[in-house]
Amino acid sequence: MPRLTAILLFSLLLSLSIQARTFYNSEGKSIEAELITVEGNLATLKLKNGRITRVAVSKFSNSDQAHIKEWWQENKNKITARDVRLTIRQKNHFTKKPETKIIKNKGRIKTSESEFNYLCKLDNYSAKTVNGIKAIFNIHKRVSKRDKNGSSREVKIVTNSMQLDLLQSKGSLKFASEGEKCSSLSDTANNQSLRETIIGMEMTLYADGKEILTQCHPENFSRFLEEQEARNEKKEIANEIREDNKDIADGKRNSSGQGRKYDEDVARDKRKRAAADAVAQRKADEQAARDKNKEKFNNRQR
Questions:
Q1: Which residue in 13, 72, 169, 244 is a FRET match for 279, CA 20 to 30 A apart?
Q2: Can you tell me the mean pLDDT for 151-174?
Q3: What is the pTM of this model?
């Protein structure tokens, strides 16, 4: 096997999740280690102290030699995040060009519509040929609205998926997500507006029912989502503090909390719990969407 292939196989060290095993040699001596890969007659092991060592397969006991052979047959064609590189770029174009209508003595209406999608390239640096790779896109779209009833803003997660072509060894694939349309409306005549914006995308690749990698565009989008959750939590706390300060200013209670009625205390506790539950529910909904996509894919594989 060429030296380059050996290096690529060795890179499985950081990506395969393998339980430690006690290996024995022909003399009965033992060592606890994780089997990383096998190349020819050499097995690569990761010891408990993190050190990497390579041992001739013939040095192991007969049962361990059988285990190594079986492990290699199961894992030799599996691809991991260390074997590939995924590049993503966003593309957009107008499906309805910006248009402005003037309504005499009332105002004007501006409208437009754009379509966004993601162009992807998957490079395979390994000697493995992989079939049946599935790509799942979770596109986060922010929808801001304003009308006579007030304003609102929410983030919708739009999911689509696709089956990729055969990924050849040392080859590459190009593919793209389905287009997602975003509308824009500014209506001063009727005092209403709508703005849809793509704020980011999270894509997961699967092979043989197992996750290969998850990557976002932009790259810092995952961190953005975490920071957004933290900001929401801080905002809820700040709202509670403002309500407490308002109660003090209105004379409903003093700074130590004395004088507050029982029902006010209960109501405030309910608001705090509701705020915490809302944050937890947002996280649970996002995780449920991911789990649902994984379950659908696994069912198709069966």
A1: 244
A2: 94
A3: 0.59
- Going by C-alpha positions, the residue among 39, 15, 215 that lies closest to residue 127 is 39
Cβ atoms of 154 and 143 closer than 8 Å: yes
Percent of the chain residues past pLDDT 70, beyond the cut: 83
Whole-Å CA distances, 75 to 117, 132, 151: 34, 16, 54
Residue 4 to residue 9: CA distance in whole angstroms: 9
pLDDT in tens, 228-276: 777 777 777 777 777 777 776 766 655 555 555 555 666 667 777 777 7
Contact 83, 126 (CB under 8 A): yes
- Going from the C-alpha of 94 to that of each of 60, 91, 142, 166, 199, the distances in angstroms are 65, 11, 18, 33, 17
130 DSSP β-pair partners: 167
Give the pairing type, strands 192-207 and 84-103: unpaired
Q: Quick count: other Cβ atoms within 10 Å of Cβ 255?
A: 8
Question: How far separated are the first and last CA of the chain, in Å rounded?
Answer: 34
Q: Which residues pair with 214 in a beta bridge?
A: 204
> pLDDT, tens digit, for every residue of 42-77?
888 888 888 888 899 999 999 999 999 998 888 777
DSSP 29-97: -EEEEEEEEEETTEEEEEETTS-EEEEEGGGB-HHHHHHHHHHHHHHTT---GGGEEEEEEEEEEEEEE
